[in-house]
Every structure is written in C-alpha cells, then in structure tokens.
Design goal:
The chain is mainly alpha-helical. About 55% of the residues lie in helices and about 5% in strands. Strand 1, helix 1 and strand 2 form a beta-alpha-beta unit. The structure holds tryptophan.
Length: about 375
C-alpha cells in the first residue's frame, strides 16, 4: 500500500507565519522528500461554509488567496494535487453514509468541536453542518485513502474520529477504507506560534498576525512593535526570554546561517539569549535581527507571489486540474464503498437475476 497524504485549510483568510511554521513549511518538505506516492492539499471551502453560511463571498474571495499562499510558499503542482473541496461531490456522498456510523453523543464529546462552539458563541444555535463537520472531515481523509494527515495538534480529535469511522465501516461492510495517522509538528514553537502581541496564538480575529503577503514595511512595523519583556526597560537590565515573543519567533525561524549573515558577533541563538539574560542587549537590536531573518524567509515567497498574481487564470487552472485528479480517485473509492454497502443495484447483475428468478417462480403467489 502506498503512502498518501491529505491535508488542507479553510479559506477564511490569508495565510500567516503561524501557518508557515506550523504546516506550510512541513508540507513543502514532505513534498520534496519523495516518500509519498500522492499528496492532496485541499482548500476546504465547504467546511468554511459550515460557520460562514451567511458570508459566502468571504470564502469565495479567500480561495485564491490561499492558493497563492500555497504556491508561493513552494507547493509544486507537478508534485501535489491542490483542489477545492466543494467541487468534489463524492465527498458529500461519502459523508452522508458515514453519518449513520456516528452518534450525536460522540460528536458532542469531540473536544475540537466543543471548544469551537464556545469560541463562536453558538450556544443553542449550532448549525447542523458545523456540528457534523468531523464526519465530513473523515470523508475528506478517507476518500483518498490517506495514510498520513499532517495537522496541528488541535486537529487530533478529528483524526481519531476518522479512524473510528474507518474501523466501523470496515467491520460492518468490507475492508475498503484505510486508517489514517496524524502527523503533528515535532516542535512546540512551530505548532503554536504566538501572535505579535504575545497572545496565545497568531490569529486573524486577534489582529496579531504577520501575513505571508505583508510588504516589508508592514513586517518591519509589526516586528518593531512586538511584545518583549515588559521589565526590560534599560539596555543594561537583565532580560527574560520566557514569554518574550521576539525570542519565541527566533526559536521558530532563525538558523545559525542567519547569524553568520546578519549578526556575526554571535554564533547562534544560545549566545544571543545568554547576552539578553545577562543584560546589555537592547530589544531594538534583537528586533532588527528578527526582521532580517523574517525578510530572508518572506522575500522569496513575496517575489513568487507577485509573479503568480500576474497569471490568476493559470492559478485557477492549477486548481481545476488538481480537482479533476482528486475526483478521479474519489470516484474509485466511492464505487468501492457503495459496492461494499451493496448499494450498487444497477450493476448488481446477480441481485437482478435472483429477484427475477424469484418472481418467475411465483414468489407472490403463496
Ligand atoms: N479542519 C481543518 C482546519 O481547520 C481543515 C481541514 C478540512 C482538514 N478537512 C481536512 C485538515 C482534512 C486535514 C484533513 O485547519
């Protein structure tokens, strides 16, 4: 059996540095590792609509933003299939059958759904589509027989739900589906990059993001106003690294080569941290270094984006081709699923023949 990746994002906004260290960078590495037979990256517009039903325009506009971010960060359409969820109707069909394998109580226990319901203040008015999105996500994964699902750790309950559905389906019907494994970032900084304000997570709603598409001036302004150690007032004061956002970002982004290139008086981050702790190192110097590091990463991404922006039609063609490839595989799996469930009446010659036989023999006459 081959190794297959499926993962994706909801198109509700442009992608930021949190996405970059948490998933994009990893995806590009996986793509280039040559270890995977197929890689599917899904723009989850249908899932985004489960809590944006009244704002389809937001989802529609962000599809191209996410696609541009993917391609400019290095996803290569000759190696991965990038596709749009809503354009693969087989996903809906599969979800519909999975719904019979999951109880309401099980969904209510899903920790991700629970916390998202709280976050969104749904209280008693949870849309059914939102409530059941773990089922749809199980369809996303299993339609492609994905073995590996690279996600953030907040998505682990989703993968567990998918695994339960697979086990249940395979034991009731036939062993058609593949149990997926989650692949989570091995580095804590990368799985939860804080916002520039030092808050828990970089997130659009908190307005504390650095976007991949920000221009150098915006990046500079955001870095220079980043949260550091509030007690580090004069340069001579000893400073704290813990909870100091600038150092958290350096942990996530900088390499020894960055020191050689931009701050050669230090060998590595440990030396810089030691100096900051001792005192005598000002925030501005550290921030300028971080800015240089981020620009080193963002500049090529931005340049690639500019190029792609000149050919939006071409980007849509990439999405269309990716979607066609996804559907082709999806149709095969769905056919196997329906065969296993024996809901393939017109193809089932034996069923038709045996029923015909029964009625010819006067089944209705006794
Ligand atoms: N729920 C994921 C997120 O919010 C997006 C997603 C949808 C996904 N379907 C998926 C991720 C399938 C992995 C596999 O980021």
């Amino acid at each position: 059996m081959g190794k297959i990746i499926l993962t994706g994002d909801r198109p509700t906004g442009k992608l930021h540095l949190g996405h970059y260290v948490g998933s994009l960078k990893r995806r590009v590495e996986l793509q280039n590792s040559g270890e995977y037979d197929e890689i599917y990256i899904m723009i989850a517009d249908a899932q985004a609509l489960t809590d944006n039903a009244d704002n389809p325009e937001k989802v529609r506009q962000n599809i191209i933003e996410v696609a541009l971010d993917y391609l400019s960060a290095g996803l290569d359409p000759s190696k991965v299939h990038i596709f749009i969820q809503s354009q693969v109707p087989e996903l809906c069909e599969l979800s519909f059958y999975y719904m019979n394998l999951v109880t309401v109580a099980r969904l209510q226990r899903n920790p991700t759904v629970k916390s998202e319901i709280k976050q969104r203040n749904f209280q008693a008015s949870i849309p059914v589509g939102f409530f059941t999105y773990p089922i749809s996500q199980a369809a996303d994964i299993t339609l492609f027989k994905a073995t590996t699902v690279p996600v953030g750790d907040d998505q682990l309950p989703m993968i567990e739900q998918a695994r339960e559905i697979v086990r249940s389906f395979n034991s009731i019907y036939a062993p058609v589906l593949v149990e997926p494994q989650a692949l989570i970032p091995d580095n804590k900084v990368c799985s939860r990059l804080p916002g520039t304000d030092g808050k828990a997570k970089m997130s659009k709603s908190l307005g504390n993001c650095i976007y991949l598409s920000d221009d150098p001036k915006e990046v500079r302004t955001k870095v220079m106003s980043m949260y550091t150690d509030p007690d580090h007032i004069r340069v001579e004061d000893p400073g704290k690294i813990e909870g100091n956002c600038v150092f958290t970002y350096l942990d996530a982004f900088c390499t020894d080569e960055h020191f050689a290139k931009f701050l050669p008086e230090y060998q590595n981050l440990d030396e810089l941290k030691a100096h900051y702790r001792r005192g005598g190192l000002g925030d501005v110097k550290v921030k300028k270094f971080l800015y240089a590091v981020l620009e080193d990463i963002l500049e090529p991404i931005r340049a690639k984006r500019k190029e792609l922006e000149q050919d939006i039609e071409g980007v849509y063609r990439i999405l269309q081709e990716g979607t066609e490839a996804a559907r082709k595989v999806g149709r095969v799996t769905l056919r196997e699923v329906k065969d296993a469930m024996q809901i393939n009446y017109f193809d089932d010659r034996e069923l038709i023949a045996s029923q015909a036989e029964k009625y010819r023999n006067g089944a209705n006459e006794q």
